[in-house]
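tokens incoming
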């Protein structure tokens, strides 16, 4: 692997880049020097926690400060009616641009439910608004060639390109010009061709620019959408384009976030903190040997070895001191002798007894690492002892979609989960359990477990009940029997159940169309049948779930009716990166508070009191309450904070 900076200078001669990190690299192995790209950029968001918590994990250099267009400022470029939101400017000037035939490739990850887009091409003039030629996409529209002022292509313009993304997420766009014919490829296949009447000559002030149009997605940046760019000074043949597509998809299938670079693809990912123990999972892009060094101070005094060459490594630390901060570092060495390091990180062991602790809840991280990073910043600012993920860690991260874990889940929450332990329950988006089990080191061999932290016991359940029963007849009865026994045996002050699917929800249409028909279901029927009576019988204090991409808290409930003197409080908090949903047109009797927007929750547990707050991604308080334990029953809700919610 060549040094990325050396590769940049070798590939682009004396290119001067005004934005640090827009660099060439070997994305897919060695190129034939005569046919190598003149520019090859790998774009990935570099999400960091603030201040001293930031880490310098191995990665290809990426634009760390692309030029942004503020909402209050006039946007410079319009593309199919959308205004520009971000730009990487001046990557190549007229001296480095091809004067004749060329090929431009864009590799894009589009996993949102709004129209977003990007353009790459040659611009000039005041504000670099005049586009001489460009390749791009917005929504389902594709353009390639010379552009008009409104962003439409004079030469190739597919306004309604009904073309399927690879595995529903990835798009490769390739535009080539051989001096006579323009050709447009989508995911390795030719979809349009045309001989233009004329072709523009490039002025002396021409520059190669990357521009994004993502205003409908809060926090989304150019590098979330465009993850690879290559420019060649010759026209690639169709089989060469197909070869590039195979290379790109192969890297995504393997979970390689920074192709060609030895790097961490998952973790360090902390799980299952105990008073004297903790687990963590780490994965690299290729087989490696790992060493975990740790201690209560630096230099680190203890070490665990994982000497077998493999991608995934799991460490279980034991014999630790309770309620104690630790430092740790993971180093990996691949077969060729190259080393990488996580840098110095931290974790804290669990409290015991009635000692106070704080935990966070995050639901339905799913699709938007840029939202999940924003959630992570808020959670980190609160410094919880651990975080619960309420299912749907991915939108559809089944065995054939490893990239939803490596490119999305860990990209968004990885920095946080290296310092704050995560505990998770599977959702329907993780229902095949393949990568869910691969990336977690949680208690037991089942999909359900209980776990004690301080004076609370958490009962984590698998609510994918239809799937499980089909795959494993008798699963529902077995899980219910286990839950009943575990609740009966629990001596914890607080009993908290965690699963993915809702018991109560005012979502507008997942359980019946509330805008057109009466009699919608209150929540997931199987979950209600299997769990609700046990929650009542054993005085469960809190039930936490996701699935609906909204926030809703119930009144205290018992036997499906409001019971303010000791009912169970149900909280649906699906405020991670999934597609936001909405509420029924009328309020439901069980609903105490609700909010539509991205969010996370924080619980402070102190003896016989739990204090709760819901925060949005800007840190604003959206809901809150206090529970006080009085006797043997469920906690009594005695106070509600002023809410800015619905």
């Amino acid at each position: 692997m060549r040094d990325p900076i050396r590769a940049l200078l070798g590939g682009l001669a004396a290119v001067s880049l005004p934005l640090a990190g827009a660099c060439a690299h070997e994305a897919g192995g060695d190129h034939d020097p005569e046919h190598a790209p003149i520019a090859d950029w790998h774009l990935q968001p570099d999400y960091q926690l603030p201040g001293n918590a930031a880490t310098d994990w191995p990665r290809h250099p990426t634009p760390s400060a692309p030029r942004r267009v503020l909402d209050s400022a006039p946007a410079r470029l319009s593309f199919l009616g959308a205004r520009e939101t971000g730009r990487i400017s001046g990557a190549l000037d007229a001296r480095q641009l091809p004067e004749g035939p060329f090929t431009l490739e864009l590799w894009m990850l589009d996993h949102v439910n709004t129209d977003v887009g990007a353009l790459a091409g040659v611009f000039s003039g005041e504000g670099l608004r005049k586009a001489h030629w460009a390749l791009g996409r917005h929504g389902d529209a594709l353009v390639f060639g010379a552009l008009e002022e409104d962003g439409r292509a004079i030469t190739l313009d597919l306004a309604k390109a009904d073309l399927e993304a690879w595995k529903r997420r990835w798009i490769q766009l390739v535009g080539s010009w051989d001096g006579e014919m323009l050709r447009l490829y989508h995911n390795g296949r030719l979809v349009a061709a045309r001989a233009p009447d004329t072709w523009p000559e490039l002025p002396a002030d021409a520059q190669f620019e990357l521009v994004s149009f993502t205003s409908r997605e809060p926090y989304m940046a150019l590098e979330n959408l465009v993850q690879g760019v290559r420019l060649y000074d010759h026209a690639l043949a169709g089989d060469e384009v197909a070869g590039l597509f195979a290379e790109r998809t192969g890297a995504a299938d393997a979970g390689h976030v920074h192709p060609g670079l030895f790097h961490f693809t998952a973790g360090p990912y902390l799980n299952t903190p105990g008073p004297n123990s903790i687990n963590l999972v780490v994965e690299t892009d290729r087989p490696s040997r790992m060493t975990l060094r740790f201690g209560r101070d630096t230099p680190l005094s203890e070490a665990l070895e994982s000497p077998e060459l493999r991608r995934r490594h799991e460490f279980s630390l034991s014999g630790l001191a309770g309620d104690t901060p630790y430092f740790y570092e993971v180093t990996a060495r691949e077969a060729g002798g190259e080393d990488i390091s996580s840098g110095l990180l931290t974790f804290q062991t669990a409290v015991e007894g009635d000692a106070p602790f704080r935990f966070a809840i995050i639901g339905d991280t799913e699709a938007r690492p840029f939202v999940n990073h924003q959630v992570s910043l808020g959670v980190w600012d609160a410094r919880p002892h651990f975080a619960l993920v309420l299912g749907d860690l991915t939108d559809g991260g089944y065995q054939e979609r490893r990239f939803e874990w490596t490119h999305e889940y860990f990209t968004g929450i990885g920095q946080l989960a290296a310092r704050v332990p995560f505990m998770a329950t599977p959702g329907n988006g993780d229902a095949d359990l393949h990568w869910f089990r691969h990336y977690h080191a949680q208690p037991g061999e089942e999909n359900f477990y209980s776990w004690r932290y301080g004076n609370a016991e958490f009962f984590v359940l698998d609510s994918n009940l239809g799937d499980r029963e089909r795959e494993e007849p008798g699963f529902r009865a077995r899980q219910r029997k286990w839950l009943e026994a575990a609740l009966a045996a629990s001596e914890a002050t607080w009993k908290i159940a965690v699963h993915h699917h809702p018991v109560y929800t005012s979502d507008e249409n997942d359980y019946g169309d509330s805008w057109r028909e009466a009699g919608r279901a209150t929540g997931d029927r199987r979950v209600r049948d299997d769990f609700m009576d046990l929650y009542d019988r054993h005085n469960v204090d809190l039930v936490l779930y996701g699935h609906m991409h909204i926030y809703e808290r119930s009144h205290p409930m018992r036997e499906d009716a409001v019971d303010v003197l000791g009912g169970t409080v149900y909280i649906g908090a699906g405020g991670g990166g999934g597609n936001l949903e909405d509420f029924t047109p009328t309020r439901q009797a069980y609903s105490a508070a609700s909010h539509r927007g991205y969010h996370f929750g924080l619980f402070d547990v102190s003896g016989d009191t739990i204090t709760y707050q819901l925060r949005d991604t800007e840190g604003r308080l959206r809901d809150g309450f206090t529970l006080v334990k009085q006797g043997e029953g469920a906690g009594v809700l005695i106070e509600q904070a002023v809410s800015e919610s619905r």
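note: The chain has a mean pLDDT of 89.
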